[in-house]
Amino acid sequence: MGAFMSSLVMTGAVVNGICYAAPFRNAEASIPLQTIPPERVGVRGEYDHYGLAKRVWLQYCEAFGAEVIACLSVKQRGSVVILHGQIRSQSLLEQLIQLAMQVEGTTNVEVRGVQVTAAV
Q1: What is the DSSP letter of 18?
Q2: What kind and span of H or E run contains 85?
Q3: What are the angstrom distances between the C-alpha of 10 and each of 13, 64, 89?
Q4: The pTM of the whole model exceeds 0.90
Q5: Distance of CA 11 to the CA centre of its chain
Q6: Backbone dihedral angles phi then psi of residue 62, each to the nearest 5 degrees
Q7: What's the angle, vertex CA 82, arms to CA 119 and CA 24, rounded to 5?
Q8: Other C-beta atoms within 10 Å of 5: how many?
Q9: What is the pLDDT of residue 82?
Q10: Distance between CA 55 and CA 51 in Å, rounded?
């Protein structure tokens, strides 16, 4: 994973912000329409308009378990992963951001109104 810059703001127990990942560079990406854009690749390698969000969600389930992230919504806008909902700790949020930024196709992670239920 490349370097990234984080801009998170915690107000009470609600977190908002954006984390910027190093852009994915692929020599083959300069050839238009030859491959599926990384953010549109589905879980099985097929074209999926929301493939990035689904792959990030799958990574979260494998790493933390579905019950830990049951109140979290993972969406995407192009190559941007958007997190919204409720989680149990600030450290979990930071781990979620790190993991999302490691998924191929992610350029940014936006945290929109994530409620932290307990400070750690």
Answers
A1: E
A2: strand 80-87
A3: 7, 23, 12
A4: no
A5: 21
A6: -70, -40
A7: 115
A8: 10
A9: 97
A10: 6
CA-CA distance, 119 to 13, in Å (whole number)? 8
Query: Measured between alpha carbons, how far is 8 from 10 in angstroms, rounded to an integer?
Result: 7
H or E element in which residue 86 lies: strand 80-87
Rounded CA gap, 77 and 49, in Å? 10
Residues in the chain, overall count: 120
Report the first-to-last Cα separation within the chain, whole angstroms: 25
Instruction: Phi first, then psi: give them for residue 46, nearest 5 degrees.
Output: -85, 165
CB 113 within 8 A of CB 16: yes
Query: Which of 24, 43, 45, 50 lies closest to 35, judged by CA?
Result: 45
pLDDT digits (tens, 9 = 90+) for 17-43: 777 766 555 555 555 556 899 999 999
| Structure tokens given for 56 | 């990030």
**Where in the chain are the domains?**
4-22+37-116
